[in-house]
Amino acid sequence: MYKKALTSLTILFFMMGFITCLNDILVPYLKAIFSLSYSQAALVQFCFFAAYGLTSIPFSKLIERVGYQKGMVVGFTLAALGCLLFYPAVILHTYPLFLGALFVLASGIVLLQVAANPCVSVIGPKETASSRLTMAQAFNSLGTFIAPLFGAYFILSALTNSTHAEGVVYPYFFIAFVLIIIALVLSRLNLTGLESTAADESGWLEVLKEKGLLLGVIAIFAYVGAEVAIGSFLVNYVMDISHATETQAAPLVAFYWGGAMVGRFLGIFTLKAFAPARVLMTHALLAVILILISMQASGTLAIGSMVLVGLCNSIMFPTIFTLGIKGLKAGQEKKGSGLLATAILGGAIVPLLTGLLADRMGLHHAFILPVICYVYIAWFGFKALSGKAH
């Protein structure tokens, strides 16, 4: 049962990464189709990640009632519906309809996140939770690596001939088909024993008062916000620096997310060899240094150092997540997961603010906001390492 459950969760993490990262292709694509400003284009990520802030806690309550497995089946089905809604958005050629479809799609991903993260943490020994979640997140990163290449070939390549965003129809129809198949297969699997038997009557605010969880919630907000902000504008950043086209710049987004994939596979071993909090602090400080170098440089150095930030991102989410729920009582994991998933709202707020900064001071220097986010994450790692986070 353990291997079957972990395999199912690995596939789930791959699809979550693939769908989420495809937004990094939608941002420059819809920006060009609808002639949007940076802040208007950032509404793609805002509507997608706003779903985390609005639905995480309600979905956590749903998971408490129906369990992990049924929750994931509903999540895949809801995400498929969101993909299908791209069709009327294309037919009517209305940007707000695209944003609505993304919100529905994201709601399905939120439900999957709320169910999957604690599930990976509780199906094995507590002491290896960080490395186990890192392994699952590595396949999430495999999805984020493939998505920009998929999007560049099937979506951005049609940009010159596209006038009504029709380039997204068939790719998202294909994704909807895959999601429905996964939902059907998952619904028929026997994952008896997967559900947590521990129950806890703590209120949401009571759980949030746990210092480690609260600091972790802020850290997840900062991490997702910084990571998504860089990924969202990387195509335009490369275009500004090297005068490349969207199609030429898109593969670098794959390298950005590919760095996270490589780092997560390495993290399976480094998180066992060193204290997870120390690894987190080191990665965050390296991210700060790389972004500052990129902001002051030009050409290949500016692009290369920004792409390398993806490698630094690799172990952050699983490490922050496991450090955040570390001090919770038995049965509080689902509420803790819901609160941590709510913090993924950072993916809506930070890119939007970065876009507003880019409209005013230029994209090259707007990345100061992600720098601030990584500074906080380094501080969180330091607090956890010193034992003061709980």
UniProtKB/TrEMBL annotation:
Segments traversing the membrane: 37-59, 71-91, 97-116, 137-156, 168-191, 212-237, 249-267, 279-297, 303-325, 337-357, 363-382
Entry-linked Gene3D superfamilies: MFS general substrate transporter like domains
Highest taxon listed in the record's lineage: Bacteria
Subcellular location: Cell inner membrane
Protein name (Swiss-Prot/TrEMBL): Sugar MFS transporter
Presence of keyword Transport: yes
Domain Major facilitator superfamily (MFS) profile: 5-389
Protein family membership: Belongs to the major facilitator superfamily. FHS transporter (TC 2.A.1.7) family.
Membrane topology: Multi-pass membrane protein
NCBIfam families (alphabetical): gluP (TIGR01272)
Function description: Intake of glucose and galactose.
Keyword vocabulary terms for this entry: Cell inner membrane, Cell membrane, Membrane, Sugar transport, Transmembrane, Transmembrane helix, Transport
Pfam families reported for this sequence: MFS_1
Organism: Methylophilus flavus
